[in-house]
Amino acid sequence: MSRPVPRTAAVAAAVALLTGLAAPAHADTTGQRQRDFAAAAAEFGVPENVLLGVSYLESRWDSNAGTPSTAAGYGPMHLTDLRAAGVATSHHDEGSEDPRGDDARPALHPQAAPAAPPQQLQTVDEAAQLLHTDAATLRSDPTQNIRGGAALLAKYHTGDNWYDAVAKYSGSTGDAAQTFADEVFDTIKTGTARTTDDGQQVTLSPAPDLVVPQHADKTPAGVECPRRVACESVPAPYQQLPKDDYGNHDLANRPESQKIDHIVIHDTEGYWDSVLKLAQDPTYVSWHYTIRSNDGLIAQHVPTKDVAWHAGNWYVNAKSIGIEHEGFAAKGTWYTEAMYRSSAKLVGYLARKFGIPLDRAHIIGHDNVPGTTPATIKGMHWDPGPYWDWSHYFDLLGAPLGGFGLPGSSLVTIDPDFAKNQPAFTGCDSPGTTCAPRGSEAVVLHSEPSETSPLLKDAGLHPDGSVSTMDVSDVGSRVATGQQYSVAEVRGDWTAIWYLGQKGWFHNPRHARVAKPAIGWVVTPKPGLASVPVYGRAYPEPEAYPANVPVQAITPLPYTLSAGQKYSSAGTVGSEYYYATTFDVADHVVVKGKLKYVQIQFGHRIAFVKAADVRILPAF
Question: What domains appear along the chain, each with residue ranges and CATH number?
Answer without folding.
Answer: 9-81+122-204 (1.10.530.10), 219-386 (3.40.80.10), 403-510 (no CATH), 524-618 (no CATH)
